[in-house]
Amino acid sequence: xxxxxxxxxxxxxxxxxxxxxxxxxxxxxxxxxxxxxxxxxxxxxxxxxxxxxxxxxxxxxxxxxxxxxxxxxxxxxxxxxxxxxxxxxxxxxxxxxxxxxxxxxxxxxxxxxxxxxxxxxxxxxxxxxxxxxxxxxxxxxxxxxxxxxxxxxxxxxxxxxxxxxxxxxxxxxxxxxxxxxxxxxxxxxxxxxxxxxxxxxxxxxxxxxxxxxxxxxxxxxxxxxxxxxxxxxxxxxxxxxxxxxxxxxxxxxxxxxxxxxxxxxxxxxxxxxxxxxxxxxxxxxxxxxxxxxxxxxxxxxxxxxxxxxxxxxxxxxxxxxxxxxxxxxxxxxxxxxxxxxxxxxxxxxxxxxxxxxxxxxxxxxxxxxxxxxxxxxxxxxxxxxxxxxxxxxxxxxxxxxxxxxxxxxxxxxxxxxxxxxxxxxxxxxxxxxxxxxxxxxxxxxxxxxxxxxxxxxxxxxxxxxxxxxxxxxxxxxxxxxxxxxxxxxxxxxxxxxxxxxxxxxxxxxxxxxxxxxxxxxxxxxxxxxxxxxxxxxxxxxxxxxxxxxxxxxxxxxxxxxxxxxxxxxxxxxxxxx
Length: 577
What we know:
This protein is of the alpha/beta class.
């Protein structure tokens, strides 16, 4: 409806310009819902935008705009000039009612868009190192990334969901050493020479075994799952790995076991990745060296104290960064640059990286390097999300990833279920801190739990259909619904809200912000639930066949929008609760 009004306003403004001898293009103007409902359905700033070109006071132009729109007839029921020259519009009720017919005819296609025109977009998210179970921070990123992908697909984009399997670097060696230490501990063996060098004299280790210490790695992974991996190795390999040099075999075993668990967790929350990209392939395929060579050709690479640096300061950033350490090992930055170069080689028009707030510092350097290599850095987007804390009984739950004293995604799913978990993770904007209230998430009362509140609103539409069927009344088609019978203010308000869904879904896709859909669905449910509860004023089924068909049509409209919105959030739309 806003698009139709905006189109008529643009045409009317164009006629005012032509009448004044101005044949230039009509500038874009804002047509938005006012903050206060009593100020109309929409407000427009067109009169103020044209004041300078028409050399007339904005309020005078606003009066002329209202007159022009009045000649068009039909859409606008009433208009008023407000403030310095805003125009507030009240649309004709029958125009709102007609939207319900459009919705019913579109059915499950309602809210789909071709805005993306099939453009190739990659959404990379989660990409957690396989060093332990997924934490709730990873869980937020997983749901956020998947919802962004769903909304982009709904907007007509071709989306590839990708997980960057980050299995290189020091953290993986520490993982291998951690498993190795626990393996030796369980076999009652002392740590081999060399492993002691990783020890931290202030840690709770070493532990005494037969009078000899098993030294645990400094900053090692301390969770019980490390001992579980070690035990699986003992069960399959016995003590044959006692004299195994280095952490390699232990690292490989831990990586395989942990990543298998990560994939199971991802599947359990309803995410299906198209690509699992292995970081090691960048080394195996020579992409790291190739990227370093290309960076050298820019003339911005230099060496200092045995390390290889890139002159980011010449690209407007606050400092230079090391690409290769003096030990010859690449920093995290170099494979990140190589990975993004590889992304563009696959033909993506936009690459979206969903990452935690702790990665904010890395983004500008990756984009600057990509630009220096001749790619368009504007094609790289970063969606950063803030951290997640858990609270029970109003008290925050202390967590530590390194010590594995944290609630995992699997544990939380077992307590609250997939649908509740998914909604809680996206009901706030990504850049806002998220406090996951476990008590609220476990609440089974639909009036209190926000996820059940939405789902129950949808289930109610099916309950009404079952009641209709019991009376021998069939659900209507769009052609059976006389929308003029839906004339109560609350019915018009509900139809207006349903009609906003396409715009909300598109805005959520374009801004990479799924919380818009979550907020919107709560507004729909907030209008629908009290409407249904007031059976005296809003009896869906009555002796009036025409009114019954109209209100059943409204029921179907609510069902379609709630099901579509819940689907975009990856939630189920139950028929019974």
